[in-house]
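Q&A log
Question type: sequence-to-structure
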Amino acid sequence: MSVRFNPVALGTDAAAPVQVATVPRLPPVHVPRPRLVSALVDADCRLRLICAPAGFGKSVLMSECARQVPADTQLIWLDISGRQLTPTDLYEQLRRHLPVGAPAPTGDIERDLLDLLRTTRGALWIMLDDFPRQAHAAFDACLDRLFEQGPDSVSWWVTSRRQPAWKLPRLLLQGDLLEVQAEALALSSPELRQLLRAHRLDLADDTFKQLLAGSEGWLAGVSLLLFNADEQAVRERLVAGTPVLRDYVQREVLEQQAEEVRRALFSLARMPRFSQQLCEHVLDGSGADILDLLKVNQLFVRQIDNCGEWFRLWRPLASILQRMSTTLSPTQTHLRACQWFANRGEMREAVEHALWAGQPEVAANFLQRYGQEQLLIGDNVSEFMRWRSELPQDLFNSTTRLIVLHGWALILSARLDEVDDCLANLAKFFPQPDARRQAQLLAQWQALRGFQARLRGEPEARDYCLQALDVLSDHAWAQRVLCYQVLTQQAMAEGKLDQAQLYNSEGMKLARLKGSLLYEGMLSVDRIQLLELSGEFERAAGVLEESLMALRDSVRHSPIIGRLKLLQGHLLAYQGLDDAAREAFQQGRTETETCGDSYVFFGYAGLAELAARNQEFPSAYHWLREVERLTQWRHVPEARFRGILALLTGATWLHQGQLKKARSIFMQVLDLYEGHRYLAPSGFYEILPRVHRYLAVIDMLSGRGGLAIDTLQALIEQSVRTQRLALACECRFTLAEALYLHGRQVEAEQELRKAVDEAARQQLVKPLYELQHRQPQWIARVLPAAKGESLRDRLLQFEREPDDAAGGADDMILSNRELTVLRLIAQGFSNQEIAEQLFISLHTVKTHARRINTKLGVARRTQAVARAKSLGWF
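Response status: OK
Response body:
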């Protein structure tokens, strides 16, 4: 290894001398970064480029690498210090420190450099520290040629605050480039902890997280914040900054820039994101050029998308610039940004910038153009609720449009009691100037009231929505879709699955007609639950995956994505895939919580139910407490989830064997829902029959087997009649156990095999858990287990016995889709009309019709309809 230690001054015509110096010492408080050093040292390429803004530790990193130069490699370190350099300067410097015997100069400096490099023996590392900060076309072009034509034995190392004008894409494609940028240089969490130890600081977790997020790993920023600091000082400096940090930014970033660039930085520091077009609008027509300049000169511009369109300043620099005094008015910047976003139809940003500019009237004006569908994107609901608190109340209630939008935001947040205030404010705008507007406003009121009633479980929700649908114009298509959703959910709560299917199809047709993937995804949640109720879990999973894929292509975050993930967890739990279910519940909980959606409740509920089923009772009670805390914190009224928490608590007590406590709470749920005082809540449409099944389990375990058997037989008959096949399967397992404990062994065996057969066809594992827990030996005889096989594996390998395959009354059970097709046939629809109604192919309709005839043992459509009527299916 050869490191040149003798400092030699080299004079140039263009700039101050450049020093050839020793490899610089490491700083006293040094955090080694082996993750970066190993990547750089081990790379097999011509050029290693470390390019980042000031203060990211570029030189220190390259110094670490220099200390690991291989024994057979020569090293030349050139400290350029950002000054200008020419090809001739580089030639003279290299010639002075390379072996004697270089060819005589020819006058062509690039050729001379190439000849000089080709005389080297063995490997050579040339390290250029702090590359010239001003562009020099001749020098950049010269190095570009050296990278391309120089000998393979020469490796170039460059640290730079400027993106050099080299053919980097070409080098990258050839495998000749490793570039390390600011994002990679930013301190990781373990590196930050190591730096804190070096400063003898032990921060609390919340302070540590604030420091990591606020600094974004900017080494210089963190180091200056920690200088002579304790934890309290760190907290204060994160809010107010420090004079030494402001001085660093002033000297290392601002002083070297033109006035136009400094003004641009102060403006952009106040913007959460900016693009080239937005900069052009905000920065008086010169923004595009300035943004390019900021990126090339590494002035803390960070890309925040995958396409290179949107950027922001690094947070610590933006925070410092916002606190520094300037003659630039932030109001003008925000108003221009507000206008630009509004012209693009991006109302969220337009409203935000109007509020930052101190213009609430402008914000309210743009808020009126906020599309109802936009509430289903990201955390827009939470933002909307924040705006409500920032806007004057009288301004927020100044128009019917704002009131209606406010009402839908409250509904998504499940703040149902506050919806009453919105409806009251809307009533103040009656009467309208003409009959048409009067009818439309009344329909808007009815749609809001209908959705609110549905969430409260009130039966009159249907009437409100049907009346609204009769009047709402095509312009109010979003409200029409939501009315169809209410009607779908209301029908499911009443057990009228055929009606639910028709309402869902109408809503889906309208959403697709308007090209709304978000509303289509929202209605898909109901469609999936319909399929689940009828035991079609495989089709439900397929629809769910299709919906998730469609939404991920259009939005990054949405309450609808969260709801679908929660529903995915629910389906996976039914199929015995507990680990995958738990992960889906967690993902859905995070997404809905981030988006401010009330469906986050079902994430906690699903995790609690999963834990109780697996006998993890401390975890189950933890999630139940969390869901109760969440609803109170978010002011969600008890009506939104009426009875669900009680049902889950009772099920947990039942799993623990606390029969008396479980019965007491189940009876409370019955009091709520029997007699149709309230309808079942969304997501728990079978709450009433499930309570009856739980009570039958309690009767069975309490020695009242005869009563349990009667209850369960009635539940199975009702479930089969209404095509709730999943519920029928669950009840059949419980009936088998009740018969077994009641001493009716032959009937119990027959019922158990029939239940296992149904569960295998539906891939329904959940009902087996209870039986395995209470009767493990019995279930082992029917589903023998090989070593390491799960209950799901055993069920899917179950083979029906020949006698069971012969069929019976249960073989006439139609799937939910088959029953829907049959009902449409009974109404006189042709095959083509049925295909259009259900969004399926004509071939699929014919297949369904053929299967219906086979199951019912008939040959014609009319005979199938007559047979279904005789069975009481219509």
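Response note: The chain has 47 helices and ten strands.
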